[in-house]
Structures are given as C-alpha cells and as structure tokens.
Amino acid sequence: MSKLLRTLLERRVPHVLAIYAGASWGVVEFVSFAVDEFLLSPHWTRVALLGLLLFLPTALMLAWFHGRPGRDQDGLARTEKIGIPANVVLCGAVLWMLFGGEDLGAATTSVTFETEEGEVVEREVAKAEFRKRTVLFPLDPGAGLDEEDSWLAYAVPSALEYDLSPDEFFDPIPYALFRERLSGLGMPDLLDIPSALKRELAEERYAEFFGAGRIERTDEGYRVALRLHEVDDGSVVAEAFREGPDLLALIDELSPWVKDALGIPAREGIEDVPVRDWLSADSAAVEEYFRGSAAFMVDNDLDEAIGHMAAAAGLDPAFTSAQFSLYLFLLSNGRTDEALVALRTAMANLYRIPERHRFIVKAEYYFVAQDVARAAAVIDMWAELHPEDPQALRYQLIVHRITGDSEAKLATLAALQRLDPRDGGVLKEIAAAQEELGNDGEALEALAEYVERFPHDETGYASLAGLQRRRGEHDQARANLERAILIEPLAPGLAGALASLDLRTGNFDDARAGFERAIELARTPAERADALEGLKHYHRFRGETGEAIRVADAWLEEASGAIAPMVLSQMRAADLEIYLDAGWIADAADFLDESKARIPPPFDNYLVPYLESRLALASGDLEAAREAHDATRRVAQAMGHGELLESLQRLQGEIDEAGGDYESAIAQYRAVMATENPGPGLHRDLGRALGKAGRLDEAEAELRDALRPIPAHPRTHFEIALVLEARGDAAGAAEHLHTALVAWETADEKFAPARAARAKLAELDSS
Q: Residue 227: which of 130, 137, 133 has the closest Cα?
C-alpha cells in the first residue's frame, strides 16, 4: 500500500487530481452562473457536473503517464490512441442517454403580441418544462390558535400563491382541489393532513413539490414554519422559519425563499410588489377576505362566504380580489344583479391584481354579458401573452365547450399535453374529446397510454370501461371495472359504474343492489349526490316514476351541500324529463312553474324557453313549442353557444317529427350526428323518424345501433317492435315487446310507455 502511495506521489497523481477537482468546481460554478444569468436550461449544470465526473478516467490516465519524471512514450501512445478516445465516446454516450431528450436551450422563449392599445410588444416567458408544479397545503394550526383563527392556516399558502403568480416558472396546484377527497377521508377542514397523504395527493396531481408547515400565534404576532418537499421521495428540499407582527410582511419574506428553494431564476420584468399592494393595506379587510375564501373553499358555506367577502369589499372598495370573489359567490347564489355590481367594481380596479388575473376578470365580464366572442378574444390575447400558461389554455377550453368546437378543444388539449407531459389527466380529457368526435380508436389509444403510465390509478380503468360500454363491449368494460374495484374497493363511483353496466345489460337486481352499495359507500354530500343520481336513472329506466321523483328530491338535499345554487337550479330543472318520459304532463307543468323561479338571470333567458318548448312538445302544442324554440335559438345564436344550438337542432327534429314532417326531422337528426358523437338516444330518435317515414330497413339499422351500448333499453325495444310490425314480423315485434316489458315490469301504473307496450302486445296477440 505504501509503495502504491509513493508511486502515486512520484507521478504527482494526487496533485493533478486536486487541480482537476478545483478546475471542475470552477467550471460547474461558471455554468451555474451562466444558467442563472442568461436563463439557460438548468440541465446544463447537471451536464457539466456529470461530464466532468465521466472524464475523471482521462484525468487519471494523463496524471499517471505525464506525472512521472521523464516520459513513458509507449504508455502515452497507448493512452492517446485507446484510453482517451474510449473515455470520450463513453462520456458522450452516457450524456446523450441521460440528456438527449431534454431541452438544453434557454429556459425561456420569446413571444411577440399586440396589446389592447395596438402596441406590438416582445417579451420572454418561461418554458413549460422548467415550470415548478407545486402544491402548497394549508399550514397546521399551532400554539395560540383556536378554531376562530383557522383562516390563518389557509391564508399563508393562498397569499404565497398570489404573490408568486406573476412568475410563470411557479405553477401552483390549488389545495381546494383536494377538498372532496379529504372530506371523504374525514378531514373536511384540510388541516393536520399526514405528510404521506400530502405526498400522495400531490403525486396524483403530477406535482414535483409540495409545501407543508405550521403557523402559531405569538406575543409579537405570528410564527410560520414552512417546508418544501420533493414529491418523488418526500424528502425535504428546504425549510424556513419566519416570525413577525404582520402576516403579509411574512409572506413577502417567504416568497423569494420559495422561489430560491424551487430553483426559480431571478429575472427582469416580473412584477414584484408587496403582497398587500395586490390585496389590501387594510388588515381587517384582508382577514375578512381570507375568512370568506375559507368558508367557500373548505366549508362550502356560500352564505358565510358572501358575508365575509362583502365585509372585505366594504372595508376597502378597491380591494379587487375581494370584489371579484364577491361577484363569483353572489353569481353562484343566483344573485346576479348584485354580482354584476361587484364585477364592475373589480373591472374598475384591475391595477390591484397581477396581470394574468386581469385576463380572468375580463373574460368573466364578457361571459356573464353572454358575449362569448369578446371573452374568446380576451382569452386568446392571454394565451398569446403567456403561451406557456396552462390556465390560459384551460380558459380556452371553456370557450370551446360553449361553442361546441370539438376540433379546437382537441388542439388545445394537445397544447396542454405538450406544456406538461407529466399531467396524465390531460390524456383522459383527450380521450373524451376524441370520443366526442367519434374517433374511438384514438380515444382508446389515449386511455391505454394512461393506464400504462398510471397502472395504480383506478380512474384510468373506469374511463376505459366507460368507452367500452358505449361501444357495446360490455365484457371488456366489466373486466376493467372489476380491476378498478380491486385497486379502490371502497370507491362509490366504481360501484355506481358497475351498477350502471348491469342496468344497461338487463341485470336489474344486481343493478339495484349496486346503486344501493354506492350510496352506502358515499362519504360526502357530493359522493352521495352522485350515487343518488345513478339510482334516479335506474328508476327512470324501469318506469318507476314515483321512486325517481323521490330520489330526485333526496338528490337535491345532498347536492345542496356540494353544488352552488346557480348550477344546482339548472341541474334540478333537468328533472322535468322525468315527468315528460312518463307522460305526466300536468305534473310536468307544475314542476316547471316551480323551477322557473329558481333559475337566475341571465341563464333563465335561454333555459326557461328551452324547457317550455320541451313541455309544449310533450303536450302536443306544436305552435307553442316552435315559438319557445325560436326564442331559445335567438339567444343561443347571439351567445355563440354551439352546444345549445346542437340541442336545439335535435329538438327541432322532434318538433318536425311530431308535426308529421318526417323527412325534415330525419335531416335534423342527421345534421346533429355530423357534429357530435351520436349516442344511443340520437340513434333511437333517428330510427323512430325513419320508421314513421316508411324507411324500415334504415330504421331497424339505426335502432339496432341504439341497442348496442344499451341492450336492455325498453324504449328502443318498443321502437324496434313497431318497425318489425310494419314489416309484417309479428313474432319478432312481440319478442321485443316482451323484452321491453321485462324492464318495465315494475313501472308505475300511470307510466305511459309501458301502457302503450302492453296495449301493442295485446293487439299482436289478438291478431
């Protein structure tokens, strides 16, 4: 050993390695400086460090052969000809394998856009690959805090997200997204969540980092401890402690620390002002604001949220975030006129919020004015200004849904996937968009990729089963649902999905038991509402109208604790179809009269006449149906509401069909089929109209297409029976009528379709 050491010293190997290590450190530091100074890809620091380590054999060889007094010509020749080139090749191969697919250019990209004033501006924006996807969880309440002070636990992460929002490198995931999941686990207040669960939740949202910590009240004010963790292994990246009398001042101290801990580079042109300038200098207003936010996001108490937010806006009328939140809460509560006052006040004080938030306020202003074109223009400008901002693309998806542009929706989803390939949820959205376009192959491919990438996520198998069920592949759908249940046996949604499959395939006892199990498994109002929605559909399917109405009332009670009143009123109005399906016209009229008073403006100007048209059609008053239909269409056209226009075109087909103009009805149904993926209901409508027009072969083909995804559907069997009877196949017609009546075996006595089926079967038997 001593001889080897003497030899190494004689050849000056330690000296050369020390020089190499020092030089390497200098190179790494220089590269790190260049990355920060010129906003290069942070991968370069790792490339430099790994490259220098991989070149260590070259340094050793050169030190060994050059370090010895005199020259070893043979050894040097061999080193130059074989060793060093081999090391270079190895180094290049390793670096290519590790970094060949990474973006090694700048961490930002240049964009040019035109401002609202017509000025052309160029700016640098963060590339999506280098954005730090982060969840900041509510802090755990510590010493000195009681239940009344819980708002402080939510205020710190919310204020931090707000303060950091001007920098696109920071990509926050709002903690409110986890409310439903945590409520089901017995943690509805989102506090004192175990670290392992926080990591799991962050991982489900494809985050890289999550923040956790504690807040305490002291004699001097507040003490905040904040930790940032890596999601991959849960390790702590950095930890900070701050203490002081002013909460917002602590936020200002923590913001640069968070950016530094996440590796977000400092750069010019990023709005960096005290967080109180974004919020309010009035401490009482700030407290009311965060109390209101917590009441809405955590407690789902809309009335309390409105009270606190109105107090915040009253204390500081120029508190833009409070005014905008007040608008959202009032709108959700159906108080549209008051909401518009708050929104206009927010619009007048846009300077008090970060730039990207201003686009949200402007878009909402045009949305509520039902000016979709201007809302789309604002969002497009936002996307041009911040092309790497996923929130801008999410707002574009809202526009595409309203306009019914599935192709544009698919393109936007592809852009979202490019921005963050880690976000597997986009794959499921892409599959849904492909399914809407009728591209089942592409939809299956997207879901298969999701399942491969996330094999332990039951939602992937459930989504795949849903598509297979629609395609009539019921055995495959059942297998995927069973696999999903193995992963998450206590998920009420999976029990409901399996029950729905049983219902569609005629396993009625199993279906009923499955829906009841889903209700038993449900742990939150939202889960119970979903389970009751499935049971309501079961009763409608079987013609048990009285039970369907009872369950609809129970659904309303549960949904009231989970859905905003504005949305709830529109969803509840859709229960009109329960009465119309059964032919209970007088009850339907009474229900619609009650519903009208609950639908707030401006949504009433298209939803009310649409429902009136549906009722008039069922009543046989075609003139009134057309008049209400035309009124709805004028509003939908002014709004550019593509989805509603498609529904209206289908309703126009039903009106034409009821009026005896079967060819026009067929044309309307086919036109709708050309713009959306035709579900079984649309095939059934088209088949029914074709049968009335005497085009029996086409009618039977469409009706059998309607049966493929729902082989036990009684209405479809009834319509096929009518077609077969018209073709002289009385035996075939009777068989389908028997199948329909099996489903309607427990139907209410007054359920009109079942009575019609029994009358038709008696007619066939007597002939």
A: 137
Q: Residue 367, CB half-sphere, CA atoms under 13 Å: how many? A: 21
State how far the Cα of 136 lies from the Cα of 159, in Å rounded to an integer. Answer: 10
| pLDDT tens by residue, 602-630 | 778 889 999 999 999 999 999 999 999 99
- pLDDT of amino acid 56: 73
Q: Compute how many other C-beta atoms are within 10 angstroms of the C-beta atom of residue 677.
A: 16
At residue 671, φ and ψ (nearest 5 deg) are -65, -40
- Name residue, tokens 């939140």: 325
Give the confidence band of 404 by pLDDT, cuts at 50, 70, 90: confident
The answer, yes or no, to whether residue 640 has pLDDT greater than 80, is no
Residue 245 preceded by cis peptide, ω within 30: no
Tokens 């530094």 locate to 260
Take residue 442 and report the two structure tokens written for it: 């592409």
| Cβ partners under 8 Å of residue 86, min gap 6 | none
In 3D space, the residue among 714, 721, 717 whose CA is nearest the CA of residue 762 turns out to be 721
Helices (H) and strands (E) in the chain, counts: 39, 8
Q: Is pLDDT of 756 > 80?
A: yes
Of 67, 665, 116, 139, residue with least CA distance to 350: 116
Look at residue 302 and give its three-state secondary structure: helix
* Residues 245 and 221 sit within 8 Å (Cβ to Cβ): yes
Among 708, 195, 141, which Cα is nearest to 471's?
A: 708
CB 697, CB 720: distance < 8 Å = no
Q: Check whether 387 has a pLDDT greater than 70.
A: yes
Please state the φ and ψ torsions of residue 583, each to the nearest 5 degrees: 80, 20
Angle subtended at Cα 200 by Cα 198 and Cα 206, rounded to the nearest 5 degrees: 105
Per-residue pLDDT, 371: 85
**Model pLDDT for residues 111-159, shown as the tens digit of each residue:** 565 555 555 555 566 566 678 889 999 999 988 888 888 899 999 999 9
pTM > 0.70: yes
Q: Are 686 and 669 in contact (CB under 8 A)?
A: yes
Using an 8 Å Cβ cutoff, are 223 and 209 in contact?
A: no
Cα–Cα distance measured from residue 195 to residue 202, given in angstroms and rounded to the nearest whole number: 10
Gap between the terminal Cα atoms of the chain: 110
pLDDT for 60 equals 73
